[in-house]
Amino acid sequence: MTGIPVVALGPQHGNSPCFPGHQLYEIQDLIQNEYDGFVSDHPGRLRDYIRLLLENKELARLVSTNGRKSAIHHFSKEMIAGAWKAYLG
User: How many CB atoms lie within 10 A of CB 64?
Assistant: First the structure.
């Protein structure tokens, strides 16, 4: 929500080995890779994404703007309140 570009682990490394077979890590479902953040299970690729963001300020601004819009869409007060209203009936 703060507009900081997100570089995150993918589902292979993001999911806990304590719960095999369970999809508990959902960041890859929220981020459109290379649009509003970066997701990968490969450490070298994550490093490259970070380097790219540090070197390309315009890309960092674009990814930040897109990420903030996406976060507000998914997690705004209105969206959360509506989801609770729908759930509680």
Answer: 18
Q: Is the dihedral of CA 54, 36, 22, 81 positive or negative?
A: positive
**Residues 61/52, Cβ–Cβ less than 8 Å:** no
DSSP output for 10-73: -HHHHS-TTSTT-----HHHH--BTTTBEEES-HHHHHHHHHHHHH-HHHHHHHHHHHHHHHHH
Question: Per the domain annotation, does 2 fall within a domain?
Answer: no
- Is residue 1 assigned to a domain? no
As for how many domains the chain has, the answer is: 1
Q: Give me 51's structure tokens.
A: 């380097």
Mean pLDDT value of segment 1-22 = 82
pLDDT, tens digit (0-9, with 9 covering 90-100), for 35-75: 999 999 999 999 999 999 999 999 999 999 999 999 998 88
pLDDT for 7 equals 95
